[in-house]
Amino acid sequence: MSLLKTAIFGLLLLGAPCLGAIDKASSVNELKDIWLERSSHWVTIVFALDKRAAWELSPLAEGGAEIVIHSVKVGQRSEARIVEDNTRILEAFVQDSLTFRCKVNLKKPLRQMEYSFNPKDNFLAYKLYWPLPSQKIRRYANKAVVLKNLRYGKRPTCDRIVMEFTGKPMWSARQTTPLDITIRISGCKVGSVGRLLSPRLIKSFSCKPSGSDVYLHIAAAKPLCNFRIFWLEVGNRLVVDVMPAEQAEMVSAYMLPKDFGRPMKEQSLQLQPVVANNSRQRHTDTLTFKPIGVSVLEKIGSGAGHKITQKIARPVSASFAPTTHSSKQKQSVVLSMTKKEAVAYGRILGALNFKEYEKGIALIDKFLSRYPNSTAREGLLFMKGDFYLHLMELGGTDKLYATLAAFKKAVKTYPRSKQVPAAYLKMARASRLGGDFYGAMGYLNLLLERYKEGKFVSTALVERALVYEKLQLVDKAFQDYNTVIRRFPSSPACARARLGIAKYLHNKGLYDEADKWFAEIKTNHPGFAQRNPEFYMLRAKNDLYLKRFSTARRLFLLALNLGVRDEPAESILTRIGDTYLYQGNKKAAKKIYTFVVTHFPESEAVSIAQLRLADLTAGLKKFKELHDRYGDSPLGELALLKLASVYFKSKAYDKAMESLRELVLKPPKDEAGKAARALFYQACEEAIRQA
Predict the structure, then answer these.
(1) CA distance 555 to 275
(2) Rounded to 10 degrees, what is the CA torsion of 333, 339, 340, 346?
(3) What is the pTM of this model?
(4) Is 14's pLDDT higher than 70?
(5) What 3-state DSSP class applies to 679?
(6) How many CB atoms lie within 10 A of CB 411?
(7) Which run of H or E residues covers position 206?
(8) pLDDT digits (tens, 9 = 90+) for 328-365
(9) What pLDDT is attached to residue 91?
(10) Fewer beta carbons below 10 Å: N end or C end of the chain?
(11) What is the largest CA-CA distance in the chain?
(12) How many Å apart are CA 69 and CA 117, to the nearest integer?
C-alpha cells in the first residue's frame, strides 16, 4: 500500500456519541483490519469489520475528508498494522472508546467519493478522488446557497439524483441502516424539488430543511452496497448515484494482503506510550501507522523525477513481440490434449474470436480448475489478462484490479515466459486506462530500464508519452514521440508517435505545422485512421482553426460514427454545429444545438450548446440565466462576457461595465478574462464620450 507524498492521514480514536448502530446485537463490532491503496488521483481505504456499522463521511473545507465509524472496537490486527511502521503518515490514538475517526488530508477539495460494502466478507471501502491537474475545482463557499432544483432519473447502471445549487456548499453523508443514506447540505435553503417517478433502486427520497441546513434522505428497496457522490463544477451540481448490490465492488483480492482481516496468532504487542501534541488529554497508547504495500515508483525529491525501487524477473530473451495466439501455437497445444480438454479449449478460442470477453474469462477459470496441469495453462493465464484488458478498452475501467491481478498471477507462475515483458506493457496500459498514471509509469520505467533495446521499446515509449499527456507533461511526451520517430522509423508505433506530435503542435497553436503531420500520417499509414478515430477528431479541430469548415464537418462526422473514447457524442455534435455557425448557416447550427440541449440534458456539453443558442438569439435573459446557473466557472464567465457584449452593441455602456465588474476585478486567467478587460475599457471610453 502506498500513499501520495503530500498526503497526511490522521487516525483519531475519540469518544463520541453513537449515531445508532446498524446491528443492535449485544456483541461489539470489531474493526479487524485497515488497508490503504493509492493512485495518482484517488485513495482507497478498506476496513474489515465483524458486521455492518453506522458511519459518516464529511469533506473538509481545507481539503480531504473525515470518516467516522460508530460502535466499533479496534482489533489486534488493526493495531499491528499501525505498529509495523513509524513514518507518521497515518497516526492513531487508541483509548477506551467505540468511535473510530479517520481524517484524510488530501490538501485538495474532494471531487468524488465511492462507497462499497461486501456483505460476504464485511469489507467496508471508500474510494476518494481529488481533482486531476486538468480539472479546476473551487473551494467550498462560505456563504449560504440555495438548492434551486432536485431531479431524479434512471440510468442503465444506476438511479441518479441531481441537486443543483447557486454555489458550492459543504456536504456530508451518513448511513445508519442498510436501506438508507442521509446527505446534509450545510447553509442551504430549499428551492424546487422533483418527484420520484417509476422508482427502481431508490424506493423514496425526501428533502427537508432543519435550521440552516437541508437534509436529503434516500431510502432504497434493497440494502445499499454500492453508491457514489460526486461534484460537477459546471452547473454547481451534486450528484448521487445508487448502483445495484450485485455490481462489482471496488475492492479485489489483488489489492489486499493475504492476511487481511484474518485473526493474528497469539503474540504480545509492545506499545510505547506517547503524548499527542494537539490534545489536552494524555493518551497512553499512541500508535503510528504506515501502509504495508511498496510502490514501484518513488519520488527522489522535488523536481528530481522518479527512481526504480523494484526489479522484475529477467525473461529468457532480451526482446519480445506483443502476445499473439498464433495458429501453430494453438495447434501444438491442442495435439497434446484429450478430446474433452480440446473441446473446452476450443470454446475459449471461440469466445476470443467473437470478442465475448466476459464469457471467455469464465471459461478460462472453469478450464483451469478442471485441467490444472494442461499444456495450455501458461497461455490461458496470460490470455485471461488480455480479456480483462479488452474489457477496459471497451470502457470497463472498473476492471483495473482484476486485469492487474490476472497478469501478475501469470508472471508469478511463469516468470521466465516470453510473454512476461508484454504482460508488463499491458499492465501499464491498463493502469493508464484505469487512471493510475503513476502506476503505469512505474511499469514502463521498469521495462525501459531492463530492456534498452528490442522491438517493444518503441511501443513502451509511446505508452509512456500517453501517460505524460495525462499528467499534463506535454513536453516530455513530445520528447518520447520524437525519440520513437528518430530511433525506430519503421516501427508500427511511428504512426501513433506522429499523431502525438501533430496534437502537440495543434495545442501550441501551430496549425499549419500540425496539418503537415496529419497529411504525412494519411500518406504513410493509410489504415491508421480507421483503427484510431482520434485522428479524425484531432484533424477536424485543426481544420476548424484553419477555417476549412466543410472538411472539418466531414471529419467530425467520421469521428462520430467510429466513436472516440475521450469525446462524447454530444460534444462532437456541438462542434458540428459550430462548423455551420462559422459558415453563416445559423438555421442548421440552431437545429443541432437544440438537438443537443433536448436529448442530452445532463451532459456537460449541453452548457456550450445553450451558450451558442443564447448567442444566436442575442437574448439578455438567456445569458443571465446561464451566468446564474454556472456561476464563477469558465462557462459562467463566458456568459457574462456575452451579456456585456450585447449591452455594448445596444450602446448601454454603463450596464456593460457593471456586468464586467466582477471579471475585471480579478486577474485575467484566460482569454475570456483578457477580452472582458478590453471590452470594459472600450465601454468606459464610449461612456465618457456620451457624457
Answers:
(1) 67
(2) 50
(3) 0.54
(4) no
(5) helix
(6) 23
(7) strand 202-210
(8) 555 556 667 788 888 888 899 998 888 899 999 999 99
(9) 52
(10) C
(11) 98
(12) 13
Give me the pLDDT at residue 481, please.
Answer: 94
What are the DSSP calls for 375-412, one per residue? Answer: TTHHHHHHHHHHHHHHHHHTT-GGGHHHHHHHHHHHHH
Tell me how far apart the alpha carbons of residues 638 and 636 are, in angstroms, rounded to a whole number. 5
Q: What is the CA radius of gyration of the chain?
A: 28
Q: Check: CB of residue 285 under 8 Å from CB of residue 76.
A: no
**Residue 9, CB-side half-sphere exposure with 13 Å CA sphere:** 27
Q: In the 8-state DSSP scheme, what is residue 260?
A: T
DSSP label at residue 3:
-
Q: What is the DSSP letter of 264?
A: P
Residue with cell 448521487: 240
Cβ neighbourhood burial of 80 (10 Å; 0-12, 13-18, 19+)? middle
Query: What digits encode the pLDDT tens for the residues 149-175?
Result: 888 877 777 888 888 888 888 899 999
pLDDT digits (tens, 9 = 90+) for 20-35: 445 444 467 888 888 8
> Residue 142 corresponds to which cell in the numbers above?
462560505
**Cell numbers at residue 268, please?**
504480545
List pLDDT tens digits, range 104-126.
777 678 888 999 898 888 899 98
The contacts of residue 46 (CB under 8 Å, 6+ apart) are: 33, 34, 35, 36, 37, 123, 124, 125, 251, 255, 256, 260
- Written in H, E and C, the secondary structure of 580-606 is HHHCCCHHHHHHHHHHHHHHCCCCCHH
Strand, helix or coil at 15?
coil
Cα–Cα dist 536/664, whole Å: 39
